[in-house]
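Problem 12. The chain below contains 534 residues. Write out its predicted structure in token notation.
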Amino acid sequence: MIVSLIVLIVGLGLLAPEAGTADVAAQGDFDIYLPIFTNYWEPLYSTSYYMITVDPQFTYDLGCDLGARDAAEPGAQDSVVVLDFSFPVCNANETYGAELFNFGPVGLTAVQLASQGFMTGYYECAVGDSESNLVLGIGTNNKPISCDTGAKMTAHGAAWAGMVDSVNQWAKTGGIYGQVQAYGASDIEVGWNSPARSKDWLDGYGAENDIPLLHFGDAAGCPYGEMTGTTCGNGWTQEDVWYVSWGFPPSLPLPLIYLTNGAHAEQWARLSQYAFANHGARMDFTGVFTQSQACEQWGCNNTDNTPSEAYWQLYDELNANPNTAQALTWKTDIRWILREEAYPEIYRATESSDISLPGSITVQIKGIESSLAAQAQLGRDAEGYLTEKLTLLQQVSGQIAAAQVDPAPKTDGSGSFLPAAADPSFKTGIIEGGSLAGLPYGVRLSNVWQVETNEGYLQIGAGTYPGDESRGALYILLTSLDKAGSQATLVSAQAGSGALRIMGEGENELRILSTTGAEYRFTIGNNVLEERRP
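Solution.
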């Protein structure tokens, strides 16, 4: 793919001044931006996963898929994967974990073992490849649920950071850190919590370690198109979104770019412009986060950008302005934890070359160094957080280089040494709030009803319709007992019904109530939603 890059040409006198512009001409140099065309190849995408199990052997197999793909591709690949373990869990006994999209809760030890399984699978199955690299984002989000105070959010952030640090220490001891590293990750979405509570979690994370944090959230309500001002949605501002995704020293933005009309890409480009204007330094992006594979099951309302479409949307928006122009290194697309056809295309590998640092971290370091070099524009706050961010990434870079000197040998790829880990018992009945894996972007659930059947784990969520909060919908998800496959069905109420809520259950049916007062009967199995008439 060929794209245009902007080059600044100064003082060539290519623009002749018109009559009456002598004062302008006398000033001397002109700044002219010309399009220069060059070959620019986009990176391969990786698959990220909504996690409904913490079985290390299962996650090993997922990592093995990517390791084998990267080893089979020509040259060195540089991949990122986010394992999304769902919202934070704060227990009464001051232990912490994640919800697993209503398949949990699980503790942080289980999250750690699942993450280590994925990293081991990648390393061992990248047979003959010592160059390709994986950054694994161990992900949660900013939903409050049980972590419903600032103190709890801070404590959970600190505990999550400690768990990620333990994963990296394990990788260094095991000799695989030179090819696989763990970062923290959080899907910080504007509509899910306040800026203050979201920052509380970051405070805890940042206080306990110096590990990068991937921000794979949104900028909902922030300006794009003809919009002006700095206000975003749900009480957030551009300053808040900038802070959680970039101003916080460990944060590296990997933003969701779902909308096919390019609005998400424009929101983030405008945020980078805001950063330059108000803090003296642009935001540097690691890449894009999409959901096209998840959308294949539910169907999505114009939020099914492919990784390639999202990549070029954001790239073009950023590079249309010389103050925000930059390269992007990662593309990742999230789906259910299904393994089938995650990487359908495999190519024959070429010979390996010398070991070197991953391109992604090199690009990130160079971008920050470039911003710091523009000292005249930097404010004191920007110089501070950029210096911290650069120090952090240089530290990680040095640790990678040191680990590459004495790597662990590749094994047969069986993963037989992995510890067994039992998933928690599946919760049944009505769960308030609740969560389902891979819901279309923007959907709000009122509650979820769950039951285990002979066919698998049945979850029915009640809430709003994709892209229309004035209309209700039910989301039916049947996951196989081995958690390797699922079927999704969307059933909608009539337009204007309002959001739906499950009120109770009967024999093979659920009683449903809408916010407008309409009552419904939902027949389980037939997936029929009928309004009850007086």
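Discussion. The radius of gyration is 24 Å. Students who got a different answer should revisit the alignment rule from Section 12.3.
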